[in-house]
Amino acid sequence: MCLSLPDKLKYVEVEEFNGDVRVLLRVASPLIACADSIQQCLGGAVGTVDMGVCEGVHRESQALLQTLARLAPQQMEALTLVREYRATPTVSTSDIEGAEYDVSYAQLAARKPGLSEEQKRESVLQVRALQQKLSSLQRSKATGERLAEQMMQYLVFPPVASALGVSPTPLEAEGEGKRVEADGETGEAEVGTEV
């Protein structure tokens, strides 16, 4: 039988492979001889696999994945709100009352009889500046309250709860009796059994 050059090359490669396999089998022959003993040892160490338990864990993991997929976009919205909330200056009611008092006092001072034109202009400018400050404080307070109200629906995320000064709310995984605590920074979740 006459082989072409490419066929001879393939024959040589196959023979080299067969030789490598023979060497490997010679080296592994002691292990192959002990195959039954090895299987018996592994079976004793690992034990039997309960498929019911495996399926239960699989169902729980699927429910957890669905919950996490639902939480991912909410987490992004929540973190955006937290950044806005933290960037908004904290304004108390007493800050606004103090600014209102300053505006009222400046307005009364501007109406004071006997002021020169220069003093009247300065008083008007001061009243405007104080009114702008008051308006800015009121906007900041309203923005902070609006953001806090929007963030209430995201209390499952620790950064939101921390920003509002409350404890995170556990979330039930869909269809299972498991509790999910989402880590707002990393997107990972911790799972624990409901107590």
Q: Let me know the largest β-sheet.
A: 3 strands, antiparallel
Radius of gyration: 37 Å
Mean pLDDT, all residues: 81
Q: How many domains is the backbone divided into?
A: 1
Name the helix and strand elements from N-terminus to C-terminus, one letter apiece. Answer: HHHHHHEEE
C-alpha end-to-end distance: 79 Å
Q: What is the approximate shape?
A: elongated
Percentage of residues in helical conformation: over 70%
Tell how many strands the DSSP assignment holds: 3
Low-pLDDT runs = 182-195
Structure notes:
- The chain has 195 residues and is mainly α.
- It has one domain (55-193).
- The chain contains 6 helices and 3 strands.
- It has helices at 5-33, 35-46, 51-87, 93-110, 117-151, 158-164, and strands spanning 171-172, 178-182, 189-193.
- Strands 1-2-3 form a 3-stranded antiparallel sheet, covered by helices on one side.
- α3 (51-87) packs antiparallel against α5 (117-151) and α4 runs antiparallel to α5.
- The longest helix has 37 residues, at 51-87.
- The N and C termini lie far apart (79 Å).
- 11% of the residues are buried.
